[in-house]
Amino acid sequence: MTIKTIRNLAACLLLCLLGAACAPKKKRPNILMIMSDNQSWNHAGCYGDKTVRTPNMDLIARQGVRFTNAFCSSPSCSPARAAMLTGQDIWRIEEGANLWGILPAKLKLYTDLLEASGYELGFQGKGWGPGSFTANQRKRNPAGNEFKNFGDFLSARKGAPWCYWVSSHEPHRPYEVGSGERAGIHADSVQVPGYLPDRKDVRTDIADYYAAVETFDRELGTILQQLRESGDLENTVIIVCSDNGWQMPRGLANLYDFGTHVPLIISWPGKFRENETTDHLVTLNDLAPTFLELGQVAVPKEMTGKSLLPIVAKGQTAPARDFVVLGRERHAFVRQHGLGYPGRAIRTPDYLYIRNYEPDRWPAGDPPLYGDIDPYMLHYPGLAKCYIMAHKDSAAIKPFFELGFAKRPAEELFDIKNDPDELHNLAADQRYAKLKDSLSAKMQAHLVATGDPRVTGGRLIWDGTDYFSEIDKTPRPSQESQRQFKLDSVYNYLK
Q1: Is 373 exposed, middle or buried (CB count within 10 Å of its CB: 0-12, 13-18, 19+)?
Q2: pLDDT tens digits along 6-29
Q3: What tens digit of pLDDT does each residue of 355-394 get?
Q4: Is the dihedral of CA 488, 130, 89, 241 positive or negative?
Q5: CA–CA separation, 201 vs 358, rounded Å?
Q6: How far apart are CA 426 and CA 112, in angstroms?
Q7: CA 20 to 30 Å from 39, out of 14, 251, 255, 310?
Q8: Is the peptide bond before 375 cis (omega within 30 degrees of 0)?
Q9: Phi/psi of residue 69, each to 5°?
């Protein structure tokens, strides 16, 4: 190669670099996330539920991409939201893996990174939590700048691209007993899953939950109307999701699908695919790198989530994941000395494998309160939980009590396709031994690669970290619960 040729190539390379540097960046979109609190994936019209009425979720699904295999990183509010903010698995975020804890200040959050790049930032409702951000010297909730409502944020914005998180309370317990019936949701029309007894109290509880889901959908409708009126709709990516599954026995705080499988819909008409469904395995951790990519911000290397843009954007393709790995540490303070119920799970399109690290502990919390099932202190009505507890010795109900409240083996394996209610543990079935070993090995390799101290021999901090809700440590059941279940007036988990 001659010197002249080398010079020409160098000049071409310099022009290309200068062109790339000087080329105008594409207009960055606004990002609007509307999150429900404790809503399972299948409880919306667009997900096939024929009873609950969710016209606004259904509208966004028609305008965007609906995910049928979306999961939270952990079936508990604070860690699920922390994992989403950091884009990391919960075992990588130290105290952030627990409920009512802290989110370490050293962790990089998509909210802070977007704000540093010029985005206006806001949230309403819970955001990250429950927990204490001041205990960790954070000046604000990790979700960003708090606003009373979306309208106030829209009025205050100054013209830069923005990222706003609507964090609804609904359909979080407590439910007003009979609210479903008053909303026109008849108890005989709801579908009772196989892990709950088909009884009037349970049906009423589900109907009341549906009423709360419908309240969330109306909130979503109000937000969408405000967005249309603001003039920002055309350049706004809309995300509708929940933080974790519903608050029923075997739901919230459990690694079964009913605690981890969540709705997720992403819409940007004209830019993203419309009226499509995808069965890609994804987690809420994937939202952080997705938002950063939308904002043209570099994704930190420590984020284990992967951008969802190749799945939702027109003209792009994404390789399908074979599995996702989820985890659980301490949910509520419901065992003596604040012990959690640690576990990890691997979910494939067809199977769920769970490893329970402390099978001698009570997965639903120490009896007689079983506080990892809401109502966690038996201090307000919870029809499904209380019905099962009241009839746990009857032949018809005992199997449901065993499923939701009793101790569990170290390993669990479920065939999702043939047993969607996850009733039959196949872990001890020799016909599935090879499959179980394969799933266990895949999960182990992932946990090692991502530095989980549960498998690497690192320090396990989660049973001893601070829990910033003192009332939970000495629960006081309601007088009605004391009478019904012959309970003490106060319990002490610190002894």
Answers
A1: buried
A2: 444 444 444 344 444 444 457 999
A3: 999 999 999 999 999 999 999 999 999 999 999 999 999 9
A4: positive
A5: 32
A6: 44
A7: 310
A8: yes
A9: -130, 55
